[in-house]
Structure formats: C-alpha cells, structure tokens
User: Which sequence fits this backbone?
C-alpha cells in the first residue's frame, strides 16, 4: 500500500534554469494568474502601474467575466502580456497534480525574466504598497544586489461590508489582522520578489535563488528561509504587501465558489477560507498605508 502514497501529494515546487541576463535589464514585472477578477482588477492594475510596475505578465485561467478586456483598457499595450493558462497537468507516472500557479510563475520567469531586475509573484487581491518611496522600484533600490525578498502578508478582512461598497478596495478595506507574524492559522505567509535571472526553484510562497533558500526582508536582513517566520524578521519599512483576502461577505462566498487553483484541494477549501477569515477578524487594527501612498501621489 505504501508505494501509492506519493500519488496523494502534489508537485508544488518546480526547479528552473534561470534566463540569461540581458544587457541593461531593469524594472519590475508582476506575474499573476487570474480568473474572473473583473470587479476589482482595474483598480489593482492602475495602482501598480502608478507604482512603477513595468510589465504585467497575466496568466488567464479561463476568465469569462471580461477580466482580460478590462486589463487591456487599463494598461498600455506594451506593459501587458496575456498568456492563456486554463489547464490541469499531472505527473503521468505517479498521478500527482502539478500546481498550475507555480507552473505559471516558472514560465513567466523563464520566458520574460531576462530583461528585468525584479519579478514579483502576487495575486489580484494583493497590493504592493511603497511606504516611503514614490514607486516600487525606488522602494527596492536600497537593497543593492539582493536577489530574493520575502514580504509578509498584511491580511485584511471584510471591514464590516456585506455587499461590495462603492469606491474600490483600497478606500473601503482598512482593517487587517494586527500581527502579520501571528502563529494563528492562515494569517502568516509570505510572497516573494526575486531577481529572475538567479531564480532556480519556486513554490507559491517561497523561492530559491542560485540554489539557495536564503531570503531577505525589505530592510535587507538576510536569513535562511526557515528563519523568516521568526518575529524579528518582520519589516514593512519600505514595501508592504496588503492581502485583501475576502473583501465583502458576498465576494467571500464567490471566492469560495470559484475554488482553489489546485483541483485536488476543492473539498477542504471552504473550511480553510472561513477559518482564515475568522482568525483575521479576531484581532484587527486600522491600516491606511495604501491610502497614504495614493495621497502622496495626489490620487
């Protein structure tokens, strides 16, 4: 019986050969996978375009609500790359599903990373917020030759909204879990910004560069990956990652209905999501960092 156990798992880590660095490479791209994000994707794209993102690498997992058309209307043509990405792949020998989001990230880095200094791997409900600088590249400039940056989630809940309010996400969702480094389930996690020309392996929430799991916070403090969960690693001095996990209650229900990116996880998904929401909202504080950034831009 034991020989069958690997088939129950999934392939969630992929190794890649990093792209060759092109002369004069610069700027930052965001790689993301989307599915039916029409309600908020224009705000998300406009925010990050204003924040200096050079290219948006959008992997479309079967959107049917006009998401891609909205992105084409919001972003300059030269800034947007759309890749159809509706698929489920598995290891034919062992039957293990290959994580479609990780596969998208690996494709993005391998095919588009050569002329970029940085590549961020986030979702359409996550916002990269410069805390002092006028743009994301400026917020990263002090890191010098750093190659692997881990940003902790700042987890926002429903902020009391049952239905989607007018005015967008940033202005209406101002309450988040107090402690981004909490041990409460679902609250603490990281997303990565890396130098794609040194990326050698990746998962959704952790990446390796030059064969190493070493990573740094936004102050440039370098640790082994296993040490980034320690409270001392926390920093959002220069760049804060806001994760608008639920938005309104009706949108939370829709999120659950869409299901996870990994088909094998469908059965446990609602329980996990509801538990995470309860943990976020059990101890909240007001956070206006994204609003403050827009005010600095005069938006």
Assistant:
């Amino acid at each position: 019986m034991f020989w069958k156990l690997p088939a129950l798992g999934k392939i969630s880590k992929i190794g890649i050969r990093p792209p060759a660095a092109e002369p004069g490479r610069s700027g930052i791209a965001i790689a993301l996978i989307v599915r039916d994000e029409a309600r908020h994707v224009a705000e998300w794209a406009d925010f990050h375009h204003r924040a200096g993102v050079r290219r948006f690498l959008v992997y479309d997992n079967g959107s049917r609500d006009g998401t891609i058309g909205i992105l084409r209307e919001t972003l300059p043509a030269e800034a947007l790359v759309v890749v159809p990405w509706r698929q489920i792949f598995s290891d034919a020998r062992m039957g293990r599903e290959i994580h479609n989001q990780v596969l998208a990230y690996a494709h993005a880095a391998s095919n588009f990373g050569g002329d970029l200094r940085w590549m961020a791997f986030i979702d359409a409900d996550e916002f990269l917020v410069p805390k002092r600088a006028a743009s994301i590249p400026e917020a990263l400039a002090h890191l010098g030759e750093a190659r692997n940056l881990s940003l902790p989630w700042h987890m926002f809940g429903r902020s009391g909204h049952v239905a989607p309010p007018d005015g967008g996400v940033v202005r209406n969702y101002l309450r988040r879990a107090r402690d981004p480094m909490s041990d409460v389930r679902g609250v603490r996690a990281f997303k990565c910004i890396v130098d794609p020309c040194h990326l050698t392996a990746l998962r959704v929430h952790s990446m390796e560069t030059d064969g190493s799991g070493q990573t740094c916070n936004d102050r440039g403090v370098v640790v082994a990956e296993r040490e980034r969960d320690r409270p001392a690693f926390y920093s959002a001095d220069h760049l804060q990652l806001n994760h608008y996990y639920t938005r309104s209650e009706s949108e939370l229900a829709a999120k659950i209905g869409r299901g996870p990116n990994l088909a094998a996880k469908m059965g446990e998904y609602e329980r996990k999501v509801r538990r995470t929401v309860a943990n976020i909202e059990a101890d909240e504080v007001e956070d206006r960092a994204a609003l403050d950034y827009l005010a600095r831009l005069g938006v």
Observations:
- Residues 1-7 have pLDDT under 50 and may be disordered.
